[in-house]
Amino acid sequence: MVSTETPLCDFGAPAPDFALPGVDGRIWTRDQCKGARGLLVMFICNHCPYVQAIRERLVRDARELIDLGIGCVAISSNDANDYPEDSFDNMKRVAEEFAFPFPYLYDESQAVARAYGAVCTPDFFGYNAELGLQYRGRFDASRKETAPPDVRRDLFEAMKQVAETGRGPTEQIPSIGCSIKWKKD
Questions:
Q1: pLDDT digits (tens, 9 = 90+) for 67-82
Q2: CATH (residue range 3-179)
Q3: Is the pTM of this model over 0.85?
Q4: Domain ranges, ordered by start, for the chain
Q5: What range(s) does the Thioredoxin domain occupy (predicted)?
């Protein structure tokens, strides 16, 4: 398992569009996922211990961000042939088990992950109402283990600021996680 760190935030970079199948049977686009005050695109998967360490908090924070007008969407782009735990059927199971309040989409071709420049799970892209990138940092201090309950909520605080001001924080700590599991050519 290779740990990968996200690059610095490219402030203002536009959110690429997408049309991907969700575990709910619908096809979702970027604009359908967007909220009135912004959009949080999260590249996650089922098997990654970095994602597993934050899943319950991710659901909590997404619910609160949705209430603030930030639309949230999770995308899995891993090669499910080599990582069957990340299959579409298992995505459905995980979304139901953790009561995801956001669409959970499957990027089977991996084209959306490439368009965003996603490098790891979890990888967070926080956009303002104009769909300009404002956050590319970590969720919180969790790694493969869940951080203490009183830890600073980096992602939540950054996206709350985006909802209120349209701008993300200038200081951001990169996310770290398992590398995206790219298909072999």
A1: 999 999 999 999 999 9
A2: 3.40.30.10
A3: yes
A4: 3-179
A5: 9-161
